[in-house]
Design brief:
about 210 residues, alpha/beta, Rossmann fold, three-stranded antiparallel sheet, about 25% strand, binds 5-O-phosphono-beta-D-ribofuranosylamine
Length: about 210
């Protein structure tokens, strides 16, 4: 059975591209049915169009508040009957009602080793904190911002001569590896959100999620 996926973006969409590429493999049950952006100029929209995927722009500035925007967003997403909604650089805080509506079928990628460095400017903050390791995390989305149960993390060493840009670029490469992996697990029915947290193949994942070291 194919797994209907809707991807939400706001920008470049390099993670979206990694997902598009991984869906070209015959054994991947994930099917990206639509890409929705809150910004008309998001480059990821072009990536989707080039791959023949339906796109839609919903500009949050045209709505009277977060609740109204999120209600419209739910309608646009649900038109594609999603099994999974993937946040790929979608720069909006989602209302509790939205998160609840997609409970267990909403995932996000964050450029840090959560729970460290929630929020923005994660690479700079990892350097400033003197972290020896940094990376990225895929997690189920719950009402706590950047706080839901972890699915998979890629861990990489911080190098002595790292700048925020260099670190960001290495982390991004790993994002492109772990996000397709997580989506594939979900699409294959291997990954789900249980009452106690993320489960893979019927077993609870550790609090850090599945860890990949590079
Ligand atoms: C990524 O760093 C992701 O972790 C964060 O937003 C960024 C999106 O990048 N949530 P891209 O648009 O996929 O290139």
């Amino acid at each position: 059975m194919p797994c209907n996926v809707v991807v939400l973006i706001s920008g470049s969409g390099s993670n979206l591209q990694a997902l598009i590429d991984s869906c070209t493999h015959d054994d991947n049950p994930a099917r990206i049915r639509a890409v929705i952006s809150n910004r008309a100029d998001a480059y990821g929209l072009q990536r989707a169009q080039q791959a023949g995927i339906a796109t839609r722009v919903l500009d949050h500035k045209h709505y009277d508040g977060r609740e109204a925007f999120d209600a419209a967003l739910i309608e646009a997403i649900d038109a594609h009957q999603p099994d999974l909604v993937v946040l790929a650089g979608f720069m909006r805080i989602l209302s509790p009602g939205f998160v609840k509506h997609y409970s267990g079928r909403l995932i996000n990628i964050h450029p840090s080793l959560l729970p460290r460095h929630k929020g923005l400017h994660t690479h700079q903050r990892a350097l400033e904190a003197g972290d020896t390791e940094h990376g990225c995390s895929v997690h189920f989305v719950t009402e706590e911002l950047d706080g839901g149960p972890l699915v998979v993390q890629a861990v990489l060493p911080v190098l002595a001569d790292d700048t925020a840009e260099r670190l960001a670029s290495r982390v991004h490469q790993q994002e492109h590896r772990i996000y397709p992996l997580a989506v594939r697990w979900f699409a294959a029915g291997r990954l789900r959100l249980g009452a106690q947290g993320a489960m893979l193949d019927g077993q609870p994942l550790p609090a850090s999620g599945h860890v990949i070291r590079t």
